[in-house]
Amino acid sequence: MPLLTTGKAFIKDLEKAGSVAVYAPLEGGFEGRYQRRLRSYGYQTFNLSARGLGDLSAYLMNVHGVRPPHLGKKNIGQEGAVGPTYFVPPIAGYQLENLPAKAKGLVLWIIEGFVLSNQEKQYLVDLTKQEPKIKVVLELGGDRFFRWQSLSEAL
Fold this sequence. Notes:
This protein is an alpha/beta fold. It has six helices and seven strands, in the order H-E-H-E-H-E-E-H-E-H-E-E-H.
């Protein structure tokens, strides 16, 4: 079976822009191909969903607190009624620290990016400028064929 796409144009545009907006067919399959191409070029990929991220800067680059659901069990008198807070490491920062020595960088592949506000999308554009080893691929919707554009143009 011949190779359908080499992904060179996609990788070149991602390296040039730092962040791209992606529109993929809804039946899927294309994302995995392009992620495989990125890995073959020396990038590490990390998949996450935009739903429920909260504050992007805290979640991606700072230590932040999370509160798990209490599931009906409350500690009366020991902690607040909202439950304990657990502190977790930053997702992108932790992945960036643990990159292999020969890796070119980290690609954050974020699905369901249409739920993010324009301000949050602008933060992702700025993040790639602040931290050049981080690249962002944001899935913004569906289309009949796999296409992409710079995230700053999509804003």
